[in-house]
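hey team, just a heads up i'm posting the complex here instead of the shared drive bc the drive is being weird again. everything in one block, sequence lines first with there labels, then the predicted structure for the whole assembly after. its four chains so it's a bit long, scroll down
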Amino acid sequence: MIYLDTDYMAGAHPEVMEALNETNMLHTPGYGEDDFTCRAKKLILDTCGLDEGECFFMVGGTQTNATVIDRLLNRNEGVLAADTSHINVHEAGAVEAWGHKILTLQNNEGKISALQIRSYLEDFYADDTHEHMVKPGMVYISFPTELGTVYSKKELKDIYKTCSEFNLPLYIDGARMAYGLNAQGGDLCLKEIAHLCDVFYIGGTKCGTLFGEAIVTRFPELLPRFVSFMKLHGGLLAKGRLLGIQFATLFSNNLYNRIGKYGVELAMQLKEVLIKKGFAQFIDSPTNQQFFILPNSVIEKIRKEVSFEYWGSPGQIESKVRFVTSWSTPPQSIEKLTELL
Amino acid sequence: MIYLDTDYMAGAHPEVMEALNETNMLHTPGYGEDDFTCRAKKLILDTCGLDEGECFFMVGGTQTNATVIDRLLNRNEGVLAADTSHINVHEAGAVEAWGHKILTLQNNEGKISALQIRSYLEDFYADDTHEHMVKPGMVYISFPTELGTVYSKKELKDIYKTCSEFNLPLYIDGARMAYGLNAQGGDLCLKEIAHLCDVFYIGGTKCGTLFGEAIVTRFPELLPRFVSFMKLHGGLLAKGRLLGIQFATLFSNNLYNRIGKYGVELAMQLKEVLIKKGFAQFIDSPTNQQFFILPNSVIEKIRKEVSFEYWGSPGQIESKVRFVTSWSTPPQSIEKLTELL
Amino acid sequence: MIYLDTDYMAGAHPEVMEALNETNMLHTPGYGEDDFTCRAKKLILDTCGLDEGECFFMVGGTQTNATVIDRLLNRNEGVLAADTSHINVHEAGAVEAWGHKILTLQNNEGKISALQIRSYLEDFYADDTHEHMVKPGMVYISFPTELGTVYSKKELKDIYKTCSEFNLPLYIDGARMAYGLNAQGGDLCLKEIAHLCDVFYIGGTKCGTLFGEAIVTRFPELLPRFVSFMKLHGGLLAKGRLLGIQFATLFSNNLYNRIGKYGVELAMQLKEVLIKKGFAQFIDSPTNQQFFILPNSVIEKIRKEVSFEYWGSPGQIESKVRFVTSWSTPPQSIEKLTELL
Amino acid sequence: MIYLDTDYMAGAHPEVMEALNETNMLHTPGYGEDDFTCRAKKLILDTCGLDEGECFFMVGGTQTNATVIDRLLNRNEGVLAADTSHINVHEAGAVEAWGHKILTLQNNEGKISALQIRSYLEDFYADDTHEHMVKPGMVYISFPTELGTVYSKKELKDIYKTCSEFNLPLYIDGARMAYGLNAQGGDLCLKEIAHLCDVFYIGGTKCGTLFGEAIVTRFPELLPRFVSFMKLHGGLLAKGRLLGIQFATLFSNNLYNRIGKYGVELAMQLKEVLIKKGFAQFIDSPTNQQFFILPNSVIEKIRKEVSFEYWGSPGQIESKVRFVTSWSTPPQSIEKLTELL
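-- predicted structure starts here --
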């Protein structure tokens, strides 16, 4: 069976697993006060070109988003985000559970623009009853987006400039960052991303670790007393070193980049095959998620040997489907899929 | 160096680690919908003698407590708990962060009694302005307690009877359950605990896993839509199988019990040694945490080779200290400590 | 000066004020346990044709909405509402502050339809990952809407039927209920509204009282321990009788209806005048709010003697404006406005 | 019947009521943007000797406490307060509902001391695991306390000095401020209080108004975007002028002081009578609340003509009771009570 359902179906990348095995019987302090965590932080900040930044590790994406957003916002502030954003659709209301409204902007293939943000802010401040409205307190984008697309350097610069002008922190959800950084035609590297936002996270769960997300900021003062805050949010891992060990491995020997590159390469092969076979994309994604419209007859045929997800409800004749590759997709998968088609 | 600081300093028990290694490259569905999780649930419910119960897995204790308590309580209800309880002292206010007051009862060596609970409830319902007060909505106890002590079968039965009389769910925090079940002089087994409360959790983090806690209930209707609730609380692990694999291992080949037994045996040896040497306990604990008062000179001497924690601020001449054993404490540790003393 | 800005610019209707004066020096129990409150509840329930219902009084609309919605929803549930609804736009995020997402439906002149609700619910339950989404837990509509429009009996019946089918409570915000019940061409009376929803509130602030909203339900079990809940929300008035006295007056001698009728009559006169003068409506409202597009030259001219609000930002040549009448609008106001035009 | 149950049993002081009547038919902007509110703020700030302070009006005490505390605290901070404090006991958990833990200190006749505060803070910062504990973020005291007692100038100075040293805002709940300022033997005036804390509120509900509390601060930057915050908390009154009119009246012609003086004078007469008759106090209160232990036979006898409350559960032979005077207690009440005794 070939699994193209999603990118969190396997355990950890073998190099990560090896590191966990090697260190398993060591005794270290808890809650991230160990040397592995310290080393992981340093490796990440170095890769990001940050001398004075800070880095924190949490277990999962929803937890990370809820905690960072709750930390960046004041009680009576909301977060500007695409209507398709993960926080708005698929996190069970975790942001609202902590009291914050998501102020949605209409997405364009998963993305929002500097212009939309500016327009929202200008409207808000134009209205003299805006004390009865939720104040926009930050902007959330994902890189890559939930639809696999990525922001160009120009787009991100414009967004960040607009945010800075209105004094709003920009936060980037990088659950699939490794694949975004290796996007076909993409022009952003990690160092640039680190300098074109205020806080972001580097996803581990979908990019090589058993679990874990690394929160990075150039401005530690934006995340005061953050360890306590993670504890309050139920997200401070007792054996914090597990996060440190995994991320230290990801950021050694170029592993994070190798993972992203591999996943995207397979996805691009897959895209090529499907397009050649005459199937239509409903989103043209340059990353590890591929979105196609397939005839139901084709779907039925290949499902016996390939596992993947419908995107929305199946149609009568043809349906939208998503294929996702990752570091754990065997290299011969695309070949097999080609044969099946 | 001998590490007796706490029981979450090492990775996972070798048998658990082996299971994680063996399954690492498999592809499975996420969020606990895999077969390993299914099997772990079955093993746990069987061990608890529950045919119709339900079992859920979360990553850590604070997260588990906040999520379960938030689920069991109505908005305007509070949780009765010992003033020394972990939720009241060391979870950074996570219970209050979700809106619930902790209604504290004075502890007796970490424990509270059926009588105290009854007395609180009678006072509450006696007061006709009780609509201005927080309604007690559940009772929280820990087994073993934060001070290493355990409830006897009689004590737990009395508490549960009182709770049932007032229609309050009883929830047991079992972060160190393995050691509690093997307490010196203890008379409670897991099956009995499962039947003497409404919801409880079996701790993994301190008892053999990398992380993870298993929530068990005889009454699934007490935890409706709980998967979504865990997601909302940021505690639904993407690669849920990691919890399933670890707990399936803990509950195979009697591992959970072996771990508890081993940890307590070492602790009892340690207690014997220290008492023989003439040192005083400030709590007489029958489990893996040992609480002693040591002369500062002794502390200074052994600290070079043994790592352990002060309990509160150090004194002028003597200080309170805590020693904690676990499955990962090497068998020769106590011997070495004895020599040092 | 003629004030047509909004309907909460004056104090209380003289009959209400008289009742407050007459009772001012009496000593009564606090928190709504007085006889006036008891009598007001009875009068309201009688008017609603409810033998077994319950009635509670709060001070303001935002408070009432936040408290009722928080009571009706479970933690992990959201409220379906029009995107233009007051709770979504002008309550400073009070619903989200208590942890609940507003699940917005696109309004049609301020209204939503049974079909939209059904469609949302069917989509939600179709998606097998809906545990990662916020569960719709109730429906909110306003009567009249924020745009002055009203639901017909047929429309409300359809909505309520759909809600009942999916077991969702329907809640009606009646901040301007008096004017809605007297809407031009409207076909709903209070008794019918009371039986076509689960909970609703009868607005006092905009309809004759100094302040106060009366929450009514046929199903008291939907609002358990509600007095304590109001206290928790900071909305339990110490001198609760002030609410009782005011609402007892509103529901004596047909006052509430007289207020609504008067306000709407003036609004209809105003509408007629403006249409005759050739000005366009951007919403055709049958209640006390009137929405017109006026040339800026006209606006400038009449603003010296008439006070009213822009609706959104002013345009270059013409602008959207709102005129609001109420029980306190002097009868000669429309005449004067006509002369000005 | 003589009513000595509590101090919110009557309507408004006649001078306040007159002001409401006189202004009733005026049309003014809502939400406190009217001239009356502006004038009231000025009068209060002048009385407090504050040139640069800010003043906000809310409807009730629980609402005020929850809103101010929620504004002053960061998410992961708690409020230090006496165990007997109103926020801890009788506000239905409103502070916790907004996510904040109350860190209780043992009261001494309703009061806490600078020493207790310092000791708590030193312990907190001594513990290097304090990131797992709730950070003390402010101090709450009431003046007078829930037991009628008042802080001396020396005591308040010490508390404020300690708070300042640790950079914690001090907030004073002045629900019964008028009576506290006129306490027998008291040595604090409003101007001094205003300068010996960071934020406080001047209670109206119990001191002459229909409802309303005036929040005062020397440091407006402590309460940013506070109007929106009040809205979010459901506590922004639509007809805000009602608060302005009432407080402008209270702070004209020395009314607030006259009210406090009168209430305390009656209470002192009552105290004298009861002591003369040989009854024991269980708290010696210098303000308008008096706490006595009476034989049940006496209680039974006078209850036919005097209404008052038990303090806690009645005893077998004698019981604790509370008598409360206010501006609305008729002057002959004490005489009558004396006759009855």
